[in-house]
Amino acid sequence: MTKPLLELKNVVLKVNRNTPEEIKILDHLNLTINAGDFITVLGSNGAGKSTLFNAIGGDLSIDSGQILLNGRDIAHDSVEKRTRFLSRVFQDPKLGTAPRMTVAENLLLAQRRGQRRGLRPRRLNRQMDYFKEITTTMHNGLDERLTTATGNLSGGQRQALSFLMATLKRPELLLLDEHTAALDPQTSQDLMHLTNQRVQDQQLTCLMITHHLEDALTYGNRLIVLHHGQITFDVAGPEKAALTTEKLYSFFAEIE
Amino acid sequence: MSVMVSTIGQGLLWAVLGVGLFLTFRILDFADMTVEGTFPLGAATCVVAISNGFSPIAATLLAFVVGSLAGLITGLLYTKGHIPILLAGILVMTACYSVNLRIMGRANVSLLGKSTLFKNKFLESLPQYFDSVVLGTIVMVVVTGIVIYFLQTQLGQGFIATGDNQTMARSLGINTDNMKIMGLMVSNGLIAFGGALVAQNNGYADVNMGIGIIVIALASIIIGEVAFGDLTLNQRLVAVTLGSILYRFVLLIVLSLGFNANDLNLLSAIVLALCMMLPVFKQAFNFKHILKRGLDTND
Fold first, then answer.
1. Could you give the number of structural domains in chain A?
2. Nearest CA distance, A51 vs chain B (angstrom)
3. CA gap A203, A183 in Å, rounded
4. Which residues of B touch A90 (CB under 8 A)?
5. In this complex, is the C-beta atom of A72 within 8 Å of any C-beta atom belonging to chain B?
6. What's chain A's average pLDDT?
7. What is the CATH number of the domain that holds A39?
């Protein structure tokens, strides 16, 4: 369980490069993610949380430092190449699914995440029973809507589908970027429970950005806080279990 | 009778443009202006190739290849050069004009006395105008069949996803740049292929024959959709061909009202604009409600 899966070493990422407005969004950031970690990520707006995800995912290229996956530097790999080990769920339910394609077609796309797509027939019908089975586990009526275009689903259903798609083909690392934030409180809680269940069952390694202090404390085995592009707080195991919202609040008051 | 047959024949010959444009306009979800250049490019390539001793089939296929190269350039400008797609298309379209003049050597090249796809024993044995109906049907069955098969492959699904939600497609490992380039290549290949068919049917290629092509191709797509309503993707591709035929009938009616061929581009634009605004009219006048009331006896 303590083998490092992903290591970020001295990662610097700037925006507005070579202009007077140049800012270091990630400032010599160091982070080691061990296989099996379920890390909740806290930090105020602009602390660099989403940028951290974009740096890991490859949407933003880093200015210096290393991103090592199982010891291999992937800092210059394309977004497409990184999807072989990585999957993501975005905050906006619209970003995670293809609106004009059906639920089943979306799942079929996700099944080949990071793999070559050739001129073979897609063979959707062969998978329908399996898709029915896994969508039933979501308990939100998704299984009844396999042939519905995802654009016609509710936000909660779409986001549950995005999450299911991200874990359909087991990722080595799962990035959740406030994936429950756009949902109503009840739907948000349901998806959070499902998320926790699936991360435990599949023994996934996961980073989850959240603004919910309770969620950050309840879920996961490790908690980190990002501030000005650096990790200023990092607790795991019993130490994290002993944390309370009061302690977190006082910590935030200190760093601001 | 022969007018009807000739109109259907024209609709079928031009339908391949609609299917080509469908790939970019409906699936990738952008308007590709390149087609105004690749249509005469296909015609010029085909006519000059035939004049230089190529067989009509080889010349028509060569037109597809040359057209897809133009699509490749638009795709590279758009994805790698970060030029907005509308401008990238206009750039290649403009460049094509000069290229077409280079290929043909002058503004108009005739196929008089040369062999074409239409000049074979079987097609010539048919009654007048049936040649384009038969050839057009064969072409559309083959082309639509290939496109439908492709869209149901793993790659085809990635292509659809790219146009539907680029962020998601990328997060699933789909190379969206390559998908767009591929779509532009196949689309422009088909448009050039259509140019080659039309040139052989007309018996000449003209450097100005591309003007208004995007409107004609769009008209097939939109009229097909308006006429047949809610359809699956595969059905919509078939509807393009029917839309192309309907569009020819609309033109036929308009011409019979006393307009002449010089008015065609104006009329095409008006027809297309009206069809595209139909959803707005429907809302404004509550068409469906009025229609339902007219038909529902229990109301």
1. 1
2. 16
3. 25
4. 167, 171
5. no
6. 93
7. 3.40.50.300
Task: State the residue range of the domain holding A209.
Answer: 4-98+158-255
Q: How much is the CA Rg of chain A, to the nearest whole Å?
A: 19
Which value, to the nearest 10 degrees, does the dihedral of the CA atoms of residues A197, A39, A82, A74 take?
Answer: -150
Instruction: For chain A, positions 124-183, list CB contacts with chain B under 8 A.
Output: 165
- Decide if B20 contacts B187 (C-beta within 8 A): yes
Question: Which member of A83, A118, A119 has the closest CB to residue B173?
Answer: A83
Asked if B169's CB is within 8 angstroms of A57's CB, the reply is: no
Q: B228: buried, middle or exposed (CB in 10 Å: 19+, 13-18, 0-12)?
A: middle
Residue A123 is assigned to a structural domain of this protein = no
pTM above 0.80, yes or no: yes
- Residues of chain B with pLDDT below 50 are 296-299
Out of A95, A109, A114, the one facing B161 most closely (by C-beta) is A109
Terminal-residue alpha carbon distance, chain A: 34
Q: Distance (Å) from the C-alpha of residue A242 to the closest C-alpha of chain B?
A: 36
pLDDT recorded at residue B286? 66
Per-residue pLDDT averaged across A28-46, rounded? 93
Of B88, B75, B90, B28, nearest to B178 by C-alpha is B75
Supply the pLDDT for residue B278. 85
pLDDT digits (tens, 9 = 90+) for B223-256: 999 899 888 999 999 999 999 999 999 999 988 8
- B2-264: CATH class: mainly alpha
| Closest partner CB to A98 (pick from B152, B168, B175) | B168
In-domain check, residue A139: no
CB-based contacts of B105, cutoff 8 Å, min separation 6: none
How far apart are alpha carbons B51 and B45 in whole angstroms?
Answer: 10
- pLDDT per residue as tens digits for the range A149-162: 999 999 999 999 99
Q: Which residues of B touch A97 (CB under 8 A)?
A: 165, 168
CB contact under 8 A, B172 and A117: no
Domain residue spans in chain B? 2-264
Q: Domain for residue A135, yes or no?
A: no
Q: Which residues does chain B have within 8 Å of residue A88's beta carbon, measured at their own beta carbons? A: 171
pLDDT for position B299? 39
Cross-chain Cβ contact B169/A113 below 8 Å? no
ipTM of this complex > 0.95?
no
Q: Is residue A132 part of a domain?
A: no
